[in-house]
Amino acid sequence: MPSPQPRTAVLCGTGSHLPPRRVDNDELSRVLDTSDEWIRSRTGIGARHWADPGTTTSDLAAAAGARAVADAGVSEVDAVVVATTTPDRPCPATAPVVAGKLGLTGVAAFDVAAVCTGFIYGLATATGLIAAGAARRVLLIGAETYSSILDPADRTTSVIFGDGAGAVVLRAGEPGEPGAVGPFDLGSDGDGVDLITVRGGGAEQRLSGREPEPGDRYFAMAGKSVFWQAVRNMSKSARAVLDQAGWRVDEVDHLVGHQANLRILNRLADDIGIPRERSITNIAEVGNTSAASIPLALDQARAAGRLRAGDRVLLTAFGGGLTWGSTTLTWPEQATTRTEERT
């Protein structure tokens, strides 16, 4: 009796959502010691979107998720996975709230916390659920409201991060078919925990016997150290999955890296050996949206007609933890283009 075909995750729908408030560099320059030229030259960012008061991460996630589910042409999924650094509450997870807002009560729902690598970790998790037979369809969402944890007086972080959500629907399929998610390379280094962090609010601080410092409730990042860690680990991870997939570097049609900083993305492409023009970027208009950045970039590139059926796509990310991860994807026919507004 022949052995059954292995199951894997196949991309069958995408969606994204940005909050309507657009904050350009000139607006920030009026309250911070900075300028449009300073921000663009160091980050490649011209604007970002920030959520209005009363808007939650689950609101953004549900909007992006609804678009992805509609795009996939399905009414049900078996699991909702939300990758986020900015959950609605420390407890419970945000995913059950999102599932409820989408009318998906009763399905498995949980969060993945890997900061900017969250979407890649989420892809690996969703693929595992499908491969194990625990789910036939999974809605995976990367969603962030970083504006809620930024120090408004810190120009090194406030100019970089934005809010938004991106989502994909994954279905059970065969490894060789278009849309199938490829092999994964995942890694971490806890020695770098202090390079990207929010120090206050967790059990470590609460059980320390001391009151948090004023800055402990805000996001903090050691920019220079993170730059080189990001380039080195994403480049190494990307090469590892290319080897596993059997792809040559010159066969990659698009590189979609975590949208951390345009200089990082350019250096990453150079290190891997992929021409910069093959790198998909949206950081100029949305900034660094952490776990949402890769699915946002994919959905916007698809809407612009840049992703075509059969294109070989390399995904890679780096984030707090430290964490990193990569995978490959051949773009499917059913998720090629769309003409309606994506925000």
From TrEMBL:
Spans annotated as ACP-binding: 259-263
The residues responsible for catalysis, as annotated, are C116, H258, N288
* Subunit text: Homodimer.
Q: What does this protein do?
A: Catalyzes the condensation reaction of fatty acid synthesis by the addition to an acyl acceptor of two carbons from malonyl-ACP. Catalyzes the first condensation reaction which initiates fatty acid synthesis and may therefore play a role in governing the total rate of fatty acid production. Possesses both acetoacetyl-ACP synthase and acetyl transacylase activities. Its substrate specificity determines the biosynthesis of branched-chain and/or straight-chain of fatty acids.
Q: Which family does it belong to?
A: Belongs to the thiolase-like superfamily. FabH family.
Outline the extent of the Beta-ketoacyl-[acyl-carrier-protein] synthase III N-terminal domain.
Answer: 110-190
Q: Sorted alphabetically, which InterPro entries does this protein's record hold?
A: ACP_syn_III_C, ACP_syn_III_N, FabH, Thiolase-like
Pathway assigned to this chain's UniProt record: Lipid metabolism; fatty acid biosynthesis
The species this protein was found in: Actinokineospora bangkokensis
Q: Where in the cell is it found?
A: Cytoplasm
Region entry Disordered, spans: 1-23
From the Swiss-Prot or TrEMBL record, what is one GO molecular function term?
beta-ketoacyl-acyl-carrier-protein synthase III activity
At the top of the EC hierarchy, this enzyme's class is transferase
Q: What is this protein called?
A: Beta-ketoacyl-[acyl-carrier-protein] synthase III
Query: Domain remarks in the entry?
Result: The last Arg residue of the ACP-binding site is essential for the weak association between ACP/AcpP and FabH.
Q: Which residue ranges does UniProt annotate as crossing the membrane?
A: none
* HAMAP family membership: FabH (MF_01815)
Q: Which reactions does this protein catalyse?
A: malonyl-[ACP] + acetyl-CoA + H(+) = 3-oxobutanoyl-[ACP] + CO2 + CoA; 3-methylbutanoyl-CoA + malonyl-[ACP] + H(+) = 5-methyl-3-oxohexanoyl-[ACP] + CO2 + CoA; 2-methylpropanoyl-CoA + malonyl-[ACP] + H(+) = 4-methyl-3-oxopentanoyl-[ACP] + CO2 + CoA; (2S)-2-methylbutanoyl-CoA + malonyl-[ACP] + H(+) = (4S)-4-methyl-3-oxohexanoyl-[ACP] + CO2 + CoA
Return the GO cellular component terms, semicolon-separated.
cytoplasm
The UniProt keywords, alphabetically, are:
Acyltransferase, Cytoplasm, Fatty acid biosynthesis, Fatty acid metabolism, Lipid biosynthesis, Lipid metabolism, Multifunctional enzyme, Transferase
Q: Per the annotation, which location comes first and is thus the protein's main one?
A: cytoplasm
